[in-house]
Amino acid sequence: MIASQIALVYGTYLVATASPGPSNMAIMGTAMRDGRLPALSLAAGVITGSLFWAILAATGLSAVLAAYAQALFVIKIFGGVYLLYLAFRAGRSALRPVSDFARTDAGRARPRYRSLYRQGLLMHIGNPKAIMAWIAIMSLGFREDAPAGMLPAIVGGCAFLGVIVFGGYAVLFSTASMITLYARLRRWIEAVLSAVFAAAGLKLLVSQS
Model pTM? Predict the structure, then answer.
């Protein structure tokens, strides 16, 4: 029974994390544009944000937070505005001429790993759906009569899966073939990223629940 519960939790988390969304799209775009280490820095921020909500859910604080509409409203506004900001950046990049992009790329400084990490962290913390997702995950796998090791198994296992999924996106899309593809289709890729961020941001801002 315990093994089946944990397997259900892992499967649910894996499907939710691997599904295309703003975080995964951001990691993919960063990997193709800037390379593996910057993408891994962004992925580390996303994973940290996920663990933040996981710990809150494990301690029951996220359920309390979810009960207060005003708190969720503030998080939604913050997350929506930040995603729209990312959409603006991606859209501006898509509109830049190829020659202008190449000149900027040639003189680019070392990647700002802290900035990328912070971006991933803010993206995930600013997503109120992560609260609900972790509450659902905890309710799937955790009961009052659960053994002492159940909670660490859920949080630790999901954290490991998050590293595999988000890190996998960073590694896969930083290969030479993907970087070449980005150089060829840069404008289209940045336009798609801008559309994804804008859609996600607007959905957060206008959603009622």
Answer: 0.77
